């Protein structure tokens, strides 16, 4: 989907938009509310201002995200009225991107990538949560990262992750270490 987004005259913008939406689990309104003053490319940070009463946080920007923002910014500078707004994502006319435009960008990238489902912006937020869970990220950390006030909204990502049980009975597991100590005490 990422490579499909890079096609066409708006490809750098579309790629950057989808990358940041996925990587930071942003709602579409949070993404479209990003401004240059929310970014610190030198330090590699983005201020994610959560909506729906969520916790706003500072997220690290990975190298590929910083590169995508820089590439998009070079293209953006040549667009009409780009200097009139601090909004990160703008239309070719220089106005802030609308929710409908962002929805079409994401849907189109999904179609061009051949996804089976009807791709929409909130899927990227869910994909972020599921990916973090698959990587074994602590549920509380996912909660904070996505800005959830209630852990119940986060648990859906970890509940379907079978990998969370991997290694539960490995030698370095605390429970097994206690069992081994008990066995050693009995045989001594």
UniProtKB/TrEMBL annotation:
Domain of life: Bacteria
Keywords recorded for this protein, A-Z: DNA integration, DNA recombination, Fimbrium biogenesis, Transcription, Transcription regulation
GO biological process: DNA integration; DNA recombination
The keyword Transcription is assigned to this record: yes
UniProt-recorded Gene Ontology molecular function terms: DNA binding
Domain Tyr recombinase: 1-170
Record bears the keyword Transport: no
Matches recorded under InterPro entries: DNA_brk_join_enz, Integrase-like_cat_sf, Integrase_catalytic, Tyrosine_recombinase_XerCD
Pfam name, any one: Phage_integrase
Family in the record: Belongs to the 'phage' integrase family.
NCBIfam families attached to this UniProt entry: PRK09871.1
Name the UniProt record assigns to this protein: Type 1 fimbriae regulatory protein FimE
Organism of derivation: Klebsiella pneumoniae IS43
């Amino acid at each position: 989907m990422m490579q499909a987004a890079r096609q066409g005259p708006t490809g750098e913008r579309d790629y950057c938009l989808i990358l940041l939406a996925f990587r930071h689990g942003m709602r579409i309104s949070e993404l479209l509310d990003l401004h240059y003053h929310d970014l610190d490319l030198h330090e590699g940070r983005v201020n994610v201002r959560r909506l729906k009463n969520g916790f706003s946080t500072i997220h690290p920007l990975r190298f590929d995200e910083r590169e995508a923002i820089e590439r998009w910014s070079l293209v953006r500078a040549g667009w009409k009225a780009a200097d009139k707004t601090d909004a990160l994502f703008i239309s070719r006319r220089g106005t802030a991107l609308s929710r409908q435009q962002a929805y079409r960008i994401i849907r189109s990238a999904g179609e061009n990538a051949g996804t089976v489902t009807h791709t929409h912006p909130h899927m990227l937020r869910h994909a972020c949560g599921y990916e973090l869970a698959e990587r074994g990220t602590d549920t509380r950390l996912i909660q904070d990262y996505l800005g959830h006030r209630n852990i119940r909204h986060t648990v859906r990502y970890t509940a379907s992750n079978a990998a969370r049980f991997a290694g539960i009975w490995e030698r370095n597991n605390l429970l097994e270490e206690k069992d081994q100590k008990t066995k050693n005490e009995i045989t001594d």
